[in-house]
Design a protein that fits this description.
Layout (H helix, E strand, L loop, with lengths): L2 E5 L11 E8 L13 E5 L5 E9 L5 E9 L6 E5 L4 E7 L1 H8 L10 E3 L5 H11 L5 H18 L5
Antiparallel strand pairs: 1-2, 2-7, 3-6, 4-5, 4-7, 5-8
Length: 160
């Protein structure tokens, strides 16, 4: 199985009532250190939350390769996800009541989907994506995702 590390939102105390958790799901180690079939599996349980995620592999120096900034929609059924070795997903899962105020999205409209954030919120996605490209470790990417949500929350009076 792949590795999932979940923690309470210590990276963004001002979002403590907003986030379910900071999440990092990382595939099966690095290339060259693989499991049979060169894949890692992660079991995803049903969850109504929506996540903001940065996905990539990283080169030896930590620079992201094949990066994506996505929205991961809610899951109503359990599933098994396969990841290639070295694949990494750093994500921040949002409480349902904060998805609309922060992202102007309806979670149920994204059921089971993984969608490029720039297709929905280009003005928010583009500067954040540029900053995420500078990260070298998944923990920094999670912190950056949480910080972007803090900034978005404090810029919009409707989010208070």
């Amino acid at each position: 199985m792949g590795r999932l590390r979940e923690a309470t939102p210590r990276l963004a105390p001002r979002l403590a009532g907003t986030l379910v958790a900071d999440v990092q799901a990382i595939g099966a180690g690095r290339r060259g250190h693989t499991l049979p079939f060169d894949l890692a599996f992660h079991r995803v349980l049903p969850d109504p939350a929506l996540s903001l995620a940065f996905c990539c592999r990283r080169e030896a120096g930590g620079y992201p390769l094949e990066p994506r900034l996505v929205i991961v929609g809610p899951k109503s059924k359990p599933s098994l996800c396969m990841f290639e070795p070295g694949y990494e997903m750093a994500a921040v899962r949002l409480k349902l009541e904060w998805v609309a105020p922060l992202l102007d999205l309806v979670p149920s409209e994204h059921e089971g989907a993984v969608t490029d954030l720039s297709l929905m919120l280009a003005g928010f996605a583009e500067p954040l994506f540029g900053k995420l490209l500078e990260t070298r470790i998944p923990e920094r990417a999670v912190a950056m995702l949480a910080a972007a949500l803090v900034q978005r929350r404090h810029r919009d009076p409707a989010c208070e």
